[in-house]
Design a protein that fits this description.
The structure holds 2 protein chains of 2 kinds. Chain A is an alpha+beta fold. Chain A has one domain: T-fold (Roll), CATH 3.10.520. Chain A contains 6 helices and 10 strands. In chain A, the strands form 2 sheets. Chain A has a 7-stranded antiparallel sheet. In chain A, strands 4-5-10 form a 3-stranded antiparallel sheet, with no helix packed on it. In chain A, helix 1 packs antiparallel against helix 4, helix 4 runs antiparallel to helix 5 and helix 5 runs antiparallel to helix 6. The radius of gyration of chain A is 17 Å and the shape is globular. Chain B has one domain. By secondary structure, chain B is of the alpha+beta class. Chain B is built from 2 helices and 8 strands, in the order E-E-E-E-E-E-E-H-E-H. Chain B has a 5-stranded antiparallel sheet with strand order 1-2-3-6-7, with helices on one face. A two-stranded antiparallel ribbon of chain B has the order 4-5. Classes of the chains: A alpha+beta, B alpha+beta. The interface between A and B is large, with 56 and 47 residues. Strand 4 of chain A pairs parallel with strand 8 of chain B, so a sheet runs across the interface.
């Protein structure tokens, strides 16, 4: 499987990094659907209940309910093959939690990148904000544009991993959108909205994010057309 | 600024690793080097922290059990360190070094190539063959954008992301 989290940290000490590292391994142990005996796998098979599981599972479950509501049903982790699967939110949530831990441990700035979903705080240096390049979904070796200063940047798309996103209204694999990037204040929600937008038609995704204050969306369709919500600010790379 | 990579669920046995980055430079040549060590995912994690770099002499921090050495080459555009890897038991699996040679000419990166020993570690060889072609283009592109990280849906290999981040670290100065 091999999910990679990368951290860029200003300030803090080795203990801070180690804590964040332990936390992320723990998240993987609990939430990985690839691990047969993870809490999430057992819950999916009906072998365990939410209340038996560690608190973080209830926390994520609660955020999934909130994301379901905020996305007007377009992010629906209950309507996935095999049952409740919060994977579309967990990565962003975990990256953000890790960033907060680094901050509590004394880091003055950090960027935590959970396999393409990014949480930032502080400034990498006095003169500038964190700068995040957005992959070109037709040529992942290329950076298409750059966003700056957003606390959360989440990208979802099918172009690398195949058709794994399900349209919640049809229950079948989604088409139409090549990639969706959501920026905003909280990565757990940006992650959920990006996941939902990538599994929706372009206009549906745009309308969905427009209704969420503080969040902006960039959608790239299969023809390479880019559509933005009005507040999405980016520079060409 | 220090950079770290944490790999989750790297193998079917649930091994995971923490990678840290050290850069070595000499003259106009830049070598980006990663060392990896893996431990069971049930809680223990080894870390080696910090980035060390030196503009005049090549120096390389080591992690227990594996070591590498780098020396400055007289060439004006590249350095060619030599590396060694150790492969241990399943509990203490180290998937070795992913090392890239980044060629700088006239202040710009012009090429990125793997510096791979004969792969005693087939996993590393596989990682390298995946990561490096993607990396070199990204490095060349990222250079003009001067970015701190990349958001996208194509992160399939630990080493790719790791390599890219360390190269970006170098680019970001």
């Amino acid at each position: 499987m091999g999910t990679v989290f990368s951290l860029a940290v200003v300030g803090g000490d080795d203990m801070a990094i180690e804590r964040a590292c332990r936390f992320l391994h723990h998240v993987d142990d609990v939430f990985s659907t690839w691990i047969e005996d993870s809490w999430i796998s057992r819950i999916r098979r009906g072998e365990a209940e939410l209340e038996d599981a560690p608190d973080i599972v209830s926390e994520v479950h609660g955020l999934c309910l909130e994301a379901l509501r905020t996305s007007r049903g377009r992010f629906d982790p209950w309507r996935l093959p095999g049952g409740f699967d919060p994977t579309g939110l967990v990565k962003g949530w975990a990256a953000e939690r890790a960033a907060r831990q680094l901050q509590e441990a004394g880091a003055t700035a950090a960027m935590v990148n959970g396999a393409g979903d990014i949480a930032c705080f502080g400034r990498p240096d006095l003169a500038r904000e964190w700068r995040i390049g957005l992959e070109d979904p037709f040529d992942p070796s290329r950076i298409a544009m750059v966003v700056e200063g957003w606390p959360a940047v989440a990208t979802s798309g099918t172009y690398q991993r195949g058709l794994h996103l399900i349209d919640p209204t049809s229950g079948r694999p989604a088409f139409g959108v090549r990639a969706a990037t959501v920026v905003g204040p909280a990565l757990w929600l940006a992650d959920a909205l990006a996941t939902a937008a990538a599994a929706s038609e372009v206009t549906a995704g745009i309308e969905m994010v427009k209704a969420v204050e503080g969040y902006e969306l960039l959608v790239v369709d299969e023809d390479g057309r880019r559509t933005f919500t009005p507040g999405f600010v980016a520079a060409a790379a | 600024m220090r950079r770290y990579q944490i790999v989750l669920g790297a193998t079917a046995a649930g091994l995971a690793g923490v990678l840290s980055y050290h850069t070595v430079s000499a003259g106009n040549g830049v070598t980006v080097q990663a060392t990896g060590s893996a431990s069971s995912s049930t809680g223990s994690a080894s870390t080696s922290a910090g980035a060390g770099s030196s503009s005049t002499t090549a120096s390389t921090p080591t992690t227990a059990g594996s070591s590498s050495s780098a020396q400055a080459a007289p060439s004006t555009t590249t350095t060619a360190p030599s590396v060694r890897r150790a492969q241990g038991s399943e509990e203490q699996y180290r998937y070795g070094l992913l090392e890239l040679q980044v060629t700088v000419s006239g202040g710009r990166i012009t090429n990125v190539q793997p510096m791979v020993d004969e792969a005693t570690d087939p996993r590393s060889a596989q990682i390298n063959s995946e990561a490096v072609p993607m990396l070199s283009q990204q490095v060349l592109q990222a250079q003009s954008a001067n970015i701190d990280g990349v958001s996208g849906a194509s992160y399939t290999s630990a080493a790719f992301e790791a390599s890219l981040q360390s190269a970006l670290n170098k680019l970001g100065r």
